[in-house]
């Protein structure tokens, strides 16, 4: 007790000193008049002062969150205070607060007890001793809590989770938050991994994948500030509401300007499409409406998304491109007017010789420009002004007609013509060359289906990766469109071809790819194993990490969700809970006429707690609309969330379970947990729903529970 009191007093004194220091730095900065003139050097200095001012203003509210007493070999032990931003002392000398991303700060996260400690620094491995690791909670400049997680002098467990459990027990509002004060060693390894590697991370639900990815971006920007720019980094997320949900973490970490996009939106920008083709509503309905629609559609060759997302599809595109390239130059000489002739052989020499190293669209452009120059030279040889005029006119017409004989080399046009020629060739005697054979390997139903909608000018989400691949092969990539680093969240719903295409847009395979195969509910397009992604890279270009601890939910919820997985999906990817106990999971009947009343009763009971966010997860969109209307009528304010939702407002949300992926709520009520709604293949979907809950989980069930829902008597589940 005495120790804690003295620790508290010690930290309070230190905090007062730090705040005074920051305050006087701020005052000094503010006393310099803001420069508004045109001198460039002065403008740069002013921008530097402004960003320093902003940093200090953030620091003064919460200057640091941790302390580490470290004795570097051969030096004296000293306390290091670690914060979200580094603060130097008034004279720019010794740091008062160390940035959490600095090499020495990694000890704060990686040290888990023991006699010696070390960390990697630019100058090599630094070794020494850790005496104290302390968490310090400061809110609005006031010291709230001091918790020692390691003290060399005291007995007991080396590093305790007490502080982490305290943080996890808090209620959440409508945004994801930073975790700088409690990053775990396994997460820190990923955050600080080297830049030029494709990291592939399998993390169970709630293991912090999204959070870790965002912290990694902030780390990369700090560590490689001269080589990486925020605007050239991107995080791909599944939908706009999710982007809104994560939108505050990066600014909190002091890094803005990082692009956040869905794959569809980005593809539409690159391909200059008017609109991003989304998963069609009929696809979603087919896959997420309860019932038998999906039966018999689980083979890859029946699933267009799986077929078009496979790396094998890339070789089909390649061989089609080879065919297009070899047949690009029209099979006639070029005659700008009668009597003048440029032989096809000369044109082929240009196309296949001098310009060979350019992408094909550029080769075409160059050849046509050269032909034009040749025409101009020839025109100069005209015998009279009248002949010149006449020839010029003819040449213009014929150049235009000749250019038209070249194939159109835009991605969409190429893709369409590929399907058309495959369609036309089907049923004909076997292909004349290898290229034909490749194209003809497209399964018939996919060929017929795709050709039919392409003809109508429709594109689907499943076509985007192939279109981007074609685009990147025929055009030179605009450097404005390339990335320094790419994060793919919910990557289990990405296809290998999507990643292969992105690899063409990113420097040095600099990827962070995160997902959870147990949450692979977009089965019709996503990956089935991480090897599918790993195979895209050479072994030395990629690294695999697994996150198995789950931080979001209580032990009761995790045990329950794990059981669903064990029974419904054969998997060894089970979550290990942090020791945080809460309410038992509740199973309540809600069927027939009393269904809606039972659900709203459950909601009322849940709302008596201190929860700030509660979700009602229905099985389909239609049921969400229905339930929402019912609650509204009963005077309960709730937000209905649909597929095109752009913002997440918190409070009570009603949404279909498949849209809840990636989000979390203090309490979750899953409705209609019965065999009619959750068929044998829906265990993953129910798992996603259950793992959205932080503190409380209720399942409202009809008459017959699916086999994979555990018996309330087992586990710590209460039922009725
Ligand atoms: N080290 C940590 N300290 C405190 N909280 C953490 C830590 N790691 C994760 N969390 C919390 O756990 C929750 C889950 O994190 P996050 O959403 O990033 O996980 P995820 O793996 O992306 O989840 P899912 O796949 O289920 O969507 C968040 O509330 C996050 O703040």
Structure description:
By secondary structure, the chain is an alpha/beta fold. Helices cover 40% and strands 17% of the residues. It has 25 helices and 22 strands. The strands form 4 sheets. Strands 1, 2, 3, 4, 5, 6 and 7 form a 7-stranded mixed beta sheet that branches. α1 (2-30) runs antiparallel to α2 and α5 packs across α6 (209-223). The longest helix has 29 residues, at 2-30. It is globular. Mean pLDDT is 87; it is low at 716-720. The site of adenosine-5'-triphosphate has 24 residues, from α4 and α6. Residues 182-554 form the UvrD-like helicase ATP-binding domain.
Keywords summarizing the entry:
disordered C terminus; alpha/beta; 25 helices; 720 residues; seven-stranded parallel β-sheet; 40% helix; binds adenosine-5'-triphosphate
Q: How far apart are the termini? A: 45 Å
The geometry reads as globular
The number of distinct β-strands equals 22
Helical segment tally? 25
Uncertain segments: 716-720
Q: What's the helical proportion of residues?
A: 40-55%
Cα-atom Rg, whole angstroms? 31 Å
Going by helix content, strand content and strand pairing, the class is alpha/beta
What bound compounds does this protein have? adenosine-5'-triphosphate
What is the subunit organization of this protein? Answer: single chain
Strand content: 15-25%
Mean pLDDT: 87
Main β sheet profile: 7 strands, mixed
Task: Briefly summarize what is shown.
InterPro entries: DNA_helicase_UvrD/REP, P-loop_NTPase, UvrD-like_ATP-bd, UvrD-like_helicase_C. By secondary structure, this protein is of the alpha/beta class.
């Amino acid at each position: 007790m005495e120790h804690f009191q003295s620790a508290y007093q010690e930290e309070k004194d230190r905090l007062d000193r730090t705040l005074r220091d920051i305050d006087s730095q701020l005052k000094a900065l503010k006393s310099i008049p803001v420069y508004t003139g045109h001198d460039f050097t002065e403008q740069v200095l002013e921008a530097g002062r402004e960003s320093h001012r902003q940093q200090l203003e953030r620091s003064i509210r919460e200057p640091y969150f941790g302390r580490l007493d470290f004795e570097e070999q051969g030096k004296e032990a000293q306390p290091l205070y670690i914060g979200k931003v580094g603060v130097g002392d008034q004279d720019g000398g010794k740091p008062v607060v160390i940035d959490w991303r600095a090499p020495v700060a990694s000890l704060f996260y990686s040290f888990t007890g023991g006699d010696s400690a070390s960390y990697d620094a630019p100058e090599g491995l630094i070794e020494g001793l850790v005496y104290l690791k302390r968490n310090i909670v400061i809110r609005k400049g006031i010291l709230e809590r001091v918790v020692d997680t390691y003290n060399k002098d005291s007995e007991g467990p080396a590093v305790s989770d007490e502080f982490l459990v305290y943080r996890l027990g808090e209620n959440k509002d409508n945004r994801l938050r930073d975790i700088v004060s409690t990053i775990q060693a396994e997460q820190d390894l990923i955050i600080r991994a080297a830049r030029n590697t494709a990291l592939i991370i399998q993390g169970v639900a709630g293991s912090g994948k999204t959070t870790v990815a965002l912290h990694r971006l902030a780390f990369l920007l700090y560590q490689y500030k001269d080589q990486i720019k925020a605007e050239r980094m991107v995080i791909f997320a599944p939908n706009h509401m999710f982007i809104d949900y994560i939108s505050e973490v990066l600014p909190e970490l002091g890094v803005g300007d990082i692009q956040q996009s869905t794959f569809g939106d980005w593809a539409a920008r690159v391909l200059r499409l008017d609109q991003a083709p989304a998963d069609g509503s009929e696809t979603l309905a087919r896959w997420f409406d309860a019932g038998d629609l999906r039966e018999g559609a689980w083979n890859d060759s029946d699933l267009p998304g799986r077929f078009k997302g496979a790396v094998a599809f890339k070789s089909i595109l390649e061989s089609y491109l080879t065919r297009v390239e070899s047949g690009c130059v029209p099979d006639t000489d070029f005659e700008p007017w009668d009597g003048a002739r440029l032989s096809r052989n000369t044109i082929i020499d240009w196309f296949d010789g001098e310009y060979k190293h350019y992408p094909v669209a550029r080769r075409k452009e160059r050849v046509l420009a050269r032909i034009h120059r040749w025409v101009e030279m020839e025109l100069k040889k005209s015998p009279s002004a009248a002949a010149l005029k006449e020839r010029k006119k003819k040449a213009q017409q014929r150049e235009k007609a000749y250019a038209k004989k070249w194939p159109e080399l835009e991605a969409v046009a190429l893709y369409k013509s590929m399907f058309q020629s495959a369609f036309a060739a089907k049923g004909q005697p076997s292909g004349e060359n290898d290229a034909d054979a490749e194209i003809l390997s497209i399964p018939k139903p996919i060929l017929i289906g795709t050709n039919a909608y392409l003809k109508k000018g429709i594109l689907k989400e499943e076509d985007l990766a192939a279109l981007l691949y074609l685009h990147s092969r025929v055009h030179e990539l605009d450097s404005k469109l390339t990335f320094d680093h790419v994060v793919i969240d919910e990557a289990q719903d990405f296809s290998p071809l999507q990643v292969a295409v992105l690899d063409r847009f990113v420097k040095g395979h600099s990827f962070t790819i995160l997902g959870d195969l147990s949450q692979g509910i977009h089965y019709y397009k996503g990956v089935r194993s991480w090897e599918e992604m790993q195979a895209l890279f050479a072994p030395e270009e990629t690294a695999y990490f697994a996150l198995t601890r789950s931080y979001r939910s209580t032990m009761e919820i995790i045990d329950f969700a794990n059981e669903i997985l064990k029974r419904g999906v054969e998997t060894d990817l089970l979550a290990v809970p942090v020791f945080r106990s809460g309410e038992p999971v509740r199973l309540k009947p809600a069927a027939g006429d009393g269904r809606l009343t039972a659900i709203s009763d459950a909601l009322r009971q849940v709302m008596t707690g201190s929860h700030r966010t509660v979700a009602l997860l229905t099985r389909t969109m239609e049921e969400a609309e229905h339930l929402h209307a019912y609650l509204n009528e009963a005077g309960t304010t709730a937000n209905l969330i649909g597929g095109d939702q752009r913002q997440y407002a918190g409070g009570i949300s009603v949404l279909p379970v498949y849209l809840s992926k990636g989000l979390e709520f203090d309490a979750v009520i899953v409705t209609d947990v019965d065999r009619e709604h959750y068929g044998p293949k829906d265990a993953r979907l129910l798992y996603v729903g259950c793992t959205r809950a932080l503190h409380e989980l209720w399942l409202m069930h009809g008459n017959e529970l699916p086999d994979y829902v555990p018996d309330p008597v087992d586990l710590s589940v209460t039922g009725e």
